[in-house]
Amino acid sequence: MSRSRCIEIIGSPVLRRVSQPFDLSVGTGPLLELVGEMERLMASERGLGLAAPQAGENVRVFILDSSSLDTSGHRVFVNPAIEPYGPVCRIEEGCLSIPGLYEEVRRPSNCRLSAMDERGIRFELDLGGMAARAAQHENDHLDGILFVDRLGSLRRRLLRRRLEAMAETAGNEPDRRV
Ligand SMILES: [Zn+2]
User: Fold this and answer.
1) CB atoms within 10 A of CB 6
2) What is the distance in A from the centroid of ligand 1 to the CA of 41?
3) What pLDDT was estimated at residue 1?
4) Would you say the pTM of this structure is higher than 0.90?
5) How far is CA 12 from CA 58, 90, 136, 171, 175, in A?
6) In CATH terms, is domain 13-169 a member of 3.90.45.10?
7) Which residues in 72-97 are b (16+ Cβ under 10 Å) and which e?
8) How far is residue 165's CA from residue 51's CA, in Å, rounded to a whole number?
């Protein structure tokens, strides 16, 4: 039976762990159940992407909203390998685990991805624009990295109080890594 999940908020330890590869040797059933829950959470918060740790699971899976982002139709990314490239640019990002905060983050403009889809079939993809941005953001979640980690130290210091308050409101301990 599936249990109802909610989105993990900053301060939750699950957001800071390095996630394990998803085990597809038992078939795609557990993957489809997890992805179904993630799709529901992403849609309910109108996000462009969601990583499994945000749904409480430390496995290497993320989803992107392929109706808003140019991902050649790909929506599910299992055990991805990512290779960012291109000029570094500043684009505003937000995160469903850090509600209401939007900050400009520096990242390479493009990325190459190799991953498996919801059927367990490997594919490769070259992304640009917002899709490249979202893929790098979601892939960071699989390594326990949040977008605020990529801000300058002064900006992080200025945001610390606000992030502590966010964690407290969610019933979490403050995030010590910000
Ligand atoms: Zn995020």
Assistant:
1) 12
2) 13
3) 44
4) yes
5) 12, 27, 21, 9, 8
6) yes
7) eebbbbbbbebebeeeeeeeebbbbb
8) 23
Measured in angstroms, how far is the CA atom of residue 79 from the centroid of ligand 1?
17
- Quick one: what percent of the chain has pLDDT higher than 70? 98
Q: Could you tell me the residue ranges of all domains in the chain? A: 13-169
- Could you tell me the distance, in angstroms and rounded to a whole number, from the CA of residue 164 to the centre of ligand 1? 17
Respond yes or no: is residue 8 known to be catalytic.
no
Q: How remote is the CA of residue 138 from the centroid of ligand 1, in Å? A: 6
pLDDT in tens, 46-98: 999 999 999 999 999 999 999 999 999 999 999 999 999 999 999 999 999 99
Instruction: Using DSSP bridges, classify how beta strands 122-127 and 76-95 pair: parallel, antiparallel or unpaired.
Output: unpaired
Two tokens at 86? 């291109």
Ligand 1 centre to CA of 119 (Å) is 24
Q: Which amino acid is at 83?
A: E
The pairs formed by 28-31 with CB atoms below 8 angstroms and a separation of 24 or more are 28/118, 28/119, 28/120, 31/61, 31/76, 31/78, 31/118, 31/120
Catalytic residue among 138, 164, 168, 173, which?
138
Residue range 122-142, pLDDT digits in tens: 999 999 999 999 999 999 999
